[in-house]
Design goal:
The complex is a heterodimer. In chain A, 0% of the residues lie in helices and 59% in strands. Chain A is built from no helices and 11 strands. In chain A, strands 2, 4, 5, 9, 10 and 11 form a 6-stranded mixed β-sheet that branches. Chain A has a 5-stranded antiparallel β-sheet with strand order 1-3-8-7-6, with no helix packed on it. Chain A is globular and about 45 Å long. By secondary structure, chain B is an all-beta fold. Chain B is globular and about 40 Å long. Classes of the chains: A mainly beta, B mainly beta. At the A-B interface, β4, β5, β9 and β10 of A face β5, β9 and β10 of B.
Chain lengths: 114, 114
């Protein structure tokens, strides 16, 4: 079984401040991990993914995430928030041995204040 | 490259009516997914196809939901009869295959059941 917990359903930061969105996972096998972003009335867009290569993963729009096995975490960060980063962010875990079935967290809404 | 297409984008029906959603995946993508996203929650997998065969439908409420993917390309998801709790966004996603877990999402269909 696999699961994802996103700590904090809402995060608010000022423009230019550090963005930190937290994700903890549970998986009985080595996981694949993903971060997706969803803008209003749109589908999900992949930001980055971890597939057992480098533990620090760089994605689009300046985001990155670090896989920490000992902490079962995959937190998403961005050094400097931009107004356009305001959106909902979803962490997902995939058991690649089970036909690639993905389990999503409940999301974190990021608000960026001017 | 065209993305995942879905229609309609919005649908309002009364309870006990039936409704159908259509999805056209990215050309060449063998795996197709239908997710239900209830407001404030992450996407929940309803059914996963590999070509025209079902890989996982363990969370599909089969007494009222059905899905098909004839010819391994387009797919339809049907609800009959609809209940109030079916109000949600229905997302379709596709990926190259079972071994490639990067999913590409369509814009979704927002269903409101009155």
């Amino acid at each position: 079984a696999q699961s994802v917990t996103q700590l904090g359903s809402h995060v608010s930061v000022s423009e230019g401040a550090l963005v930190l969105l937290r994700c903890n996972y549970s998986s009985s096998v080595p996981p694949y991990l993903f971060w997706y972003v969803q803008y209003p009335n749109q589908g999900l867009q992949l930001l980055l993914k971890y597939t057992s290569a480098a533990t620090l993963v760089k994605g689009i729009n300046g985001f990155e995430a670090e896989f920490k096995k000992s902490e079962t975490s995959f937190h998403l960060t961005k050094p400097s928030a931009h107004m356009s980063d305001a959106a909902e962010y979803f962490c997902a875990v995939s058991d690649h041995t089970n036909a690639g079935k993905s389990t999503f967290g409940d999301g974190t809404t990021l608000t960026v204040k001017p | 490259e065209a993305g995942v297409a879905q229609s309609p984008r919005y649908k309002i029906i009364e309870k006990r009516q039936s409704v159908a959603f259509w999805c056209n995946p990215i050309s060449g993508h063998a795996t197709l997914y239908w997710y239900q996203q209830i407001l404030g929650q992450g996407p929940k997998l309803l059914i996963q196809f590999q070509n025209n065969g079902v890989v996982d439908d363990s969370q599909l409420p089969k007494d009222r939901f059905s899905a098909e993917r004839l010819k391994g390309v387009d797919s339809t998801l049907k609800i009959q009869p609809a209940k109030l709790e079916d109000s949600a966004v229905y997302l379709c996603a596709s990926s190259l295959g079972l071994g490639n877990n990067e999913q590409f999402f369509g814009p979704g269909t927002r269903l409101t059941v009155l």
